[in-house]
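Late entry, 1X8 complex.
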Amino acid sequence: PTTVEPSSGNSSERAAWLRAELERANYAYYVLDQPDLPDAEYDKLFKELEQIEAGHPELITPESPTQRVGGQAASGFETVVHAMPMLSLNNGFADEDIVAFDKRVADALDTSPVDYACELKFDGLAISLRYEDGRFMQAATRGDGATGEDVTQNIRTVRSIPLRLKGERIPRVLEVRGEVLMFKRDFERLNARQREAEQREFANPRNAAAGSLRQLDPKITAQRPLSFFAYGIGVLEGMEMPATHSELLDWYGELGLPVCGERAVVQGAQGLLDFFGHVGEKRDALPYDIDGVVYKVNRRDEQDKLGFVSRAPRFALAHKFPAQEALT
Ligand SMILES: NC(=O)c1cc2c(N)ncc(C(N)=O)c2s1
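Prediction complete; structure with ligand written out below:
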């Protein structure tokens, strides 16, 4: 417990304290994976907040933990035009492709060695989250890169996605890009539930995540164990863009956004290949599916210098694993 717990006398103070306490516990459980409040205790505080809000609807705020599971089922999804397009990645497969990528980048920048941010390539759905003054406002799927579907009500139910950003450095507008995915263990449990309920099972975690996000009823999405990792940025207003991609992800962590810890900054083609080999060894032990790793020139000014060709950045490359033989 962070602050002194106010007596249950003053409803609005009590509601504010409960909200902060539930948000903190939710963050510890879903983002840090270090629960610090027993479930029974969490449920008790949650029910108390629901009761106060039922008695004082004017106290309800959109980012209250009680507002995660949205209203009634939608009839369809609105279209959202991405203020900044969500682009795709060029692929590399063989080591030579990676060496050629690094050579092109080093030549264009007239710099060697180049610093690269290396991360995992999650096998889920790319989405964009819009925050205004730190409040979650809207979520959209990637779609065709230019326009996507508004999945705000469904994304609110993803417990690891904060409804309020935390910390001191909160921008006026921030668009977070990342991946919604389902962990392997959660996928197995969901299919077991599907079997028991005599409902169709999902073929793989990616399909399960996609199917859960496309649910028109947020109450169904809320029952699906979805996760999220932030890895990119769209619109940023009211603050300077961090100088490097790795600093961007560090900042995301301070804001309370889930960022995957399996990342590194390396130098040159050999650094890329070492990262790829290291991840390849631990791939099967990861709790979620990946289909490769992603390399990005780390410095923002060097990314801007390289720009994009057609719809994919010159400064980034996905290095894919050989397709796994279809699991029987
Ligand atoms: N299309 C894209 O730009 C990306 C797609 C993905 C993906 N599926 N997983 C991880 C990352 C990452 N770590 O940057 C990216 S970036």
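Residues 87-89, 119, 121-122, 126, 179, 231-232, 294 surround 1X8 (CB under 6 Å). Will revisit in the morning.
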